[in-house]
Amino acid sequence: MSAAPAYNEDKGGSAGPGEPEYGHDPASGGIFSSDYKRHDDLKAMLDTNKDSLKLEAMKRIVAMIARGKNASDLFPAVVKNVACKNIEVKKLVYVYLVRYAEEQQDLALLSISTFQRGLKDPNQLIRASALRVLSSIRVPIIVPIMMLAIKEAASDMSPYVRKTAAHAIPKLYSLDSDQKDQLIEVIEKLLADKTTLVAGSVVMAFEEVCPERIDLIHKNYRKLCNLLIDVEEWGQVVIISMLTRYARTQFLSPTQNESLLEENSEKAFYGSEEDEAKGPGSEEAASTALPTRKPYVMDPDHRLLLRNTKPLLQSRSAAVVMAVAQLYFHLAPKAEVGVIAKALVRLLRSHSEVQYVVLQNVATMSIKRRGMFEPYLKSFYIRSTDPTQIKILKLEVLTNLANETNIPTVLREFQTYIRSMDKDFVAATIQAIGRCATNIGRVRDTCLNGLVQLLSNRDELVVAESVVVIKKLLQMQPAQHGEIIKHLAKLTDNIQVPMARASILWLIGEYCEHVPRIAPDVLRKMAKSFTAEEDIVKLQVINLAAKLYLTNSKQTKLLTQYVLSLAKYDQNYDIRDRARFTRQLIVPSEQGGALSRHAKKLFLAPKPAPVLESSFKDRDHFQLGSLSHLLNAKATGYQELPDWPEEAPDPSVRNVEVPEWTKCSNREKRKEKEKPFYSDSEGESGPTESADSGEEMGRAGACKWPSRLDPSPVCPLSSSEQSEEEGKKKKMKKRKKVPEGQEGGSSSDEGSDSSSSSSESEMTSETEEEQVEPASWRKKTVSAGTRLGLALYWWVISVLPTSLPDPHQLLSPVSGAGRQELLHRVAGEGLAVDYTFSRQPFSGDPHMVSVHIHFSNSSDTPIKGLHVGTPKLPPGISIQEFPEIESLAPGESTTVVMGINFCDSTQAANFQLCTQTRQFYVSIQPPVGELMAPVFLSENEFKKEQAKLTGMNEITEKLTLPDTCRSDHIVVQKVTATANLGRVPCGTSDEYRFAGRTLTSGSLVLLTLDTRPTGAAQLTVNSEKMVIGTMLVKDVVQALTQ
Prior knowledge:
Oligomer: single chain
Distance between the termini: 91 Å
Helix content: 40-55%
Protein name: AP-3 complex subunit beta
Region (Disordered): 1-30, 271-295, 666-780
Family: Belongs to the adaptor complexes large subunit family.
Largest sheet: 6 strands, antiparallel
Low-confidence stretches: 1-35, 259-293, 661-811
Domain AP-3 complex subunit beta C-terminal: 778-907
CATH superfamily of the domain at 40-249: Leucine-rich Repeat Variant
Keywords: Cytoplasmic vesicle, Golgi apparatus, Membrane, Phosphoprotein, Protein transport, Transport
CATH class of the domain at 40-249: Mainly Alpha
C-alpha cells in the first residue's frame, strides 16, 4: 500500500485522502522507467464511480498509446468500463480495445459478449462503435460472430451503423476470404441503400471484395450517378473511380466513333458538288448509301454520368477534382474534355504535394489533348520558389504545349530558366529546348545557335548538357553544321563530364568526313589520356579509332593499333571485349577477311536521327490519378482500366422495374417501366407520390399527366376548351381539339387526321405517340371523372381569394418568342426561312421541341426538293425531319413542323437545308425557356417538391421591378413568354409560382417570384438541372427588368 504514496512523492504531486493523484501524466515518465506499479493510480481512477475520473484516466491511457508506451497491462481494468453509461468513456474504451485486441486475443475474446450487447444498444453511436471494435479483433474463431453482426448492422435503421457495416466488410474478407459469397450478399443489399452516407463506403467494400461483379452495379448505376453530388468527398472519389471502370465495360468509345463520323461527314460535304454534277440519279444513290452508316449516339446512361460529375469540378477537394478529370479524360468525347482544364489549373494554386500529383496528370493529358491547356500556358510558368520537382514537371508541360504560334514566348521563358542556380532544373531546361527544336522545325536553327552559345558558359554542367543535346540535333542535319562540330572538338580539352566527352567523340567519329583534319588530332589527344578516362569515354574512343582507320588509315593506323592495345588490357571486361571485336572486324586477316570487307558498312552505316520524346508519352495506359500512374509502375492492388467494348452491351440491364404495389392502370405501369432514366432520383421518393399527385391534378381539373416522368400533357388545351364547351355542339368541340400546332398547312392536317384515326383503332398500343393523339384527348375530356374535376375546380376558384389566376393563365402562351430568321432571302437566293417554337407537343416524340419552319419563295423560279440534309449534331441531340417539300412556287409560302431533341441543353442544332441545286448551312439554338413543358401542381405539391430541391439545386436572385411591370397580368405574361411554364395557384397576391418539366429528362423546374409593393422582388428557381436553373434565372430577370 505504500507504493502509491512513494510514487506520488517522487513525482512531487499530492493527493487528497479519498481521491487518487492525477496531477502528473504518468505517460511523461522515462521510457526505461523501472517502476512497474506506475499504473496503479490509473487503475484506481478506472475503478471509481465518477465518470469524470474514468474519462481523465482513459484520456491519459490513449495519450500513452499515442506516445508509443505499452498500456496492455491495463486491459482488464479498461474492459470493465465497456458497460459504462458515459458515451465519451465508451468511445475511448473502444479506441483502446481496437489497439490491443489483436495483441491480447485471449483477453479480447473475454469481452466479446460485451460487444454483442453493445450491438443492441439504443444509441446508434454505441452500436457502430461496438461493430467497429468487433471487426477489428483479428481472431479467426469469431468470424461467424462478426458475419452475424455485419448482417444485422446492414439492416439497421441508422445509416451510420449501416456505413460502419460496410467498413467492416473488407476487414472480415481479409481475415477469412471464404466468406466472400455471404459478404457479396450483404454488399448487394447495401448497394440498394438510398442514403448518401452509405454509398461511398459500400462501393469501397465492393472494390475490395468483388470488383469483378459488375452485374451488382447495373441496377444501382443511375442511383449512384444521381446521389454522387451529395456523397462525402472520400466516397465521391471511390464511386467515380468505380464508375470509370464500369463505363469502360458498358458503353462504346465516343472517340473512335467521333472520328468515323467526322470522316463520313467530310466525305458527304466534299462530294456534294460531284453529286450535283452527276444529276438526280446519283443523288438518290448517295441518299440510299448514307443510312447504311452508323452514326455514333451516346448512351443516355453515359451522358448521365458525364453530366452528374461535371459540377464536382468545382469541389473544394483536390482529390474529387482529380477524379472527375480522369473520368472525363477516359470517357468523354474529345469536344467535351476541355472543361477539366480550368479546374486542374485551379489546383496549381494549392500545396506543392497537390501540384506534383496534378502536374503529373496534366503532363500526360497535354500529350494527347494539347489544345485543352494552351489557353492556360502562363499558368505553367515557373516561379523561383517552386521546388525542383515542380519546376521540372511544369517544364515538361510547357514543352508539350509548345507549337509554332507560342514557341517564341516559350523560348524566352527557357532563356530565363537557364540562369537559375538549380543545376538539375537548368539541365532539364536544356533538354526541353532540344525537344522543342526536334518537334518544331522552323526554330531548330535558333535553338541550335542558342545551345552553341551556352558552350561558353562557366558552368561545366550547363556545357555538358548542351553538348549532349546538340549531338542529337546535329544528327538531323549534319552536313549544314560542320563548324559546330569543329567547335565541339575544341572543347575536349576543357569538358570533363564523361557523357559530354563521349557525345563529342561520337559526333566526330560519325561525321569525320566533315572534319578530316581535326578528327585524327582528337584521336591523338584521347590516346594520351585513354587510361584515365571513364568507361563510357573509352568505348567511344575505340569507336572513333575504328571509324578513322576505315576512312583515313594512313594517318591513324598506328594510333588505332595503340588504342586497341591499351584497351586489350583494360580492367573493364566490356572494353576488353570491344577491343578484341573491333580488331578482328577492321584489321583484315586470313580467317576474318570476309567480315572485314563489310566493316565500313557496319561502322559507318547511316543512322536515323533520335526522337526526343516526353517521358510521359506512354503513361496513359495507367488510369490517371492512380498511384501506378504516379510511379509509372503497376502498384499492388491496381486494377487495369478495361478496353472499350466493340459492341455496346444491353442497356436494359440498368432499368429498374416499378414495384407492383403502385396502384395504377396496366398502361401506366408499362409506361412507367419505359420512363427515361434521368428522373431516377425522383423515382426514389416513391411511386405513391406520383399516384397522389395524379389524383390531385385530376380533381383540380387541370391537365392530367399519363406518368410522372412524361413532360407532355395528355390534354394541353382542355382548360381553354372548357370555356367554349357551353356554347358549342359536341361535334364541333371534338374538331376543336386538334392541336393548333398542326393547323399550319394542309399536309400537317392530313397527317394529324390519319394519326388520330390510327390511334383510335389501336388504343391498347404502348407507343409514346398515343399520349399526344387527339383521340386520347377526346377520351380523357369526355370522361365523367374529368367533368367532375372541372366542376370542382370552378367551385374552388369561386371560394378562394380573387388573387388566384384565371384558368387560362395557368397555361403558357401557345408559342414562344416571335419569328426568328433562319435563312435570309439574299443568302438563300430568294428562299427566306424563319422559325418559331410552337410550344405544342411534337407528335413524333414527346421529348422533342416542336419547331415551326416557315418557307417563303421570293424568287422568280420555283424551288424544288426542299428537305433536311445530313445533320452534324452534338452528342445527344437528334432531329425529326419534316417531309420533303416537292415544289414551292414563286411568291408562295408554307409552314412545316420539325422536332428537335436538344437533350436539355442550349447547344445549337446544326443541319443543312437542301434544294435540288443548293445546300444552306443553318442552325437553331433554343432559349432555355423552350426546353420545358408546363406541369400543373397544387400549392401543397409545389411546396413539397420545392423542399426536395434545395441547396445546390436552388438559385436565388434579387431584382427591382420597374413601374410598368408590377401588375399581375404583365408579370405572368413576361414570365410565361420567357419560359414554357404553367402557373401554380397561390393564396397570396404578392407571390407568383410556376412549374414545368424539362422535355428530355422530365426534371422539375419550379419558379417562385416574391414581390413587394416597393418594387423589390426575389426570384427563386429550384431545378435538378443546375445549369438550366442558372440560365433561366438570368433570362427571367432580364425579361422582368426591361
